[in-house]
TrEMBL record:
Region (Disordered) residue spans: 304-323
Organism: Streptomyces regalis
Protein name: DUF3800 domain-containing protein
Length: 323
């Protein structure tokens, strides 16, 4: 799981909250990062007490199910460009999301799960700039997986086999440095967090901990509204309320320390939803995580029964419920 989190908090209260957590820890504990705090009873109690003290503050989190995000990226960079070339807008009426859910939910069931895993891993390797995996490796993995599938999934995996030209293009652009961070969830998750925070506080300047990916994506966050909206041809994306992006650390911006705790807590809770092992601390975190969460890049097992337009029916009426 990946989680991006943001908090809008007065400096004095942020310092007080961090100091109160430190006061409950041994002097030898070191910097109170979420990972270390969550591993001891005293640290867990300190986290819960801190979260209780922040119930009225503006906190937003957004999660990404990494395995499902890999599938959505396969649809985005392989299938969507092919669909576009044929005049089909895969972003209209949630068709891209429907296809990603189809692959994710039925992939390990209507085909060999090991071959499915290998296909996803080879895709990840192929779009990593420093990987030696090639488009040929990727399509060998896709074909090997397709050979294990059963209808009706088989024809949708065959669709992936038609995207060799799109794969060659994206791998070339990644190798040349033209495209970067294709699989990094930081910017898409942060964009949602910023949008949701803006609904609460209005325009704001974002302070983030040091991150090369966010530094590269800072222009995107500030000028998203200059880009065309793929789901609405002829229109641009909605503006994010980010007036600037600067970088700091928890020694000068204690809010970053608290944001780390929030992100860790929501990530642990989200992880508990998809593993069979009981996690008592995740149960304690659930009320906070539910309050803070603005959703996520997450598979939806009910997707095909919620009234969304079926795949391949761009002319079907929009029967989605009104928000």
């Amino acid at each position: 799981m990946f989680c991006a989190a943001a908090i809008h908090l007065d400096d004095d209260l942020a310092c007080q909250t961090v100091d109160e957590v430190k006061a409950q820890l041994p002097a030898t504990h070191g910097e109170p990062k979420y990972t270390s705090l969550s591993q001891t009873g005293r640290g867990r109690d300190a986290l819960v007490a801190a979260f209780d003290s922040l119930v009225s503050e503006s906190i937003v989190a957004f999660i990404a199910h990494k395995r499902f995000m890999v599938v959505t990226k396969m649809v985005d960079v392989l299938v969507e460009p092919l669909a576009y070339e044929t005049g089909f807008n895969l972003y209209d009426r949630d068709a891209a999301l429907a296809l990603a859910n189809l692959y994710h939910l039925s992939g390990p069931v209507l085909g060999d799960p090991g071959a499915y895993d290998q296909m996803l891993q080879t895709f990840v390797d192929a779009v990593r700039r420093r990987s030696r995996a090639s488009a040929a490796d990727l399509f060998a993995a896709i074909s090997a997986y397709r050979a294990t599938t059963r209808p009706p999934l088989t024809e949708w995996v065959e669709l992936l086999e038609l995207t060799r030209g799109q794969a060659d293009d994206i791998i070339r652009r990644i190798a040349s440095g033209e495209t970067r961070d294709e699989l990094d969830p930081a910017i898409p998750c942060l964009a949602v967090v910023c949008g949701e925070m803006g609904k609460i506080v209005g325009d704001f300047a974002l302070v983030h901990d040091e991150s090369s990916a966010v530094a590269r994506g800072s222009v995107f966050l500030q000028y998203l509204h200059w880009l065309p909206d793929p789901a609405r041809p002829g229109r641009t994306m909605e503006r994010l309320p980010v007036t600037g992006v600067t970088f700091s650390d928890s020694t000068t911006a204690p809010q970053l320390q608290i944001a780390d705790w929030v992100a860790g807590a929501v990530r642990q809770w989200a992880t508990s939803l998809v593993i069979s092992k009981a996690d008592p601390f995740a149960e304690r975190l659930e009320p906070f995580a539910k309050r803070w969460s603005a959703g996520g890049i997450w598979p939806d097992s009910n997707f095909f029964t919620t009234g969304r337009t079926p795949i391949g029916r761009p002319d079907a009426p929009d029967t989605r419920p009104t928000p």
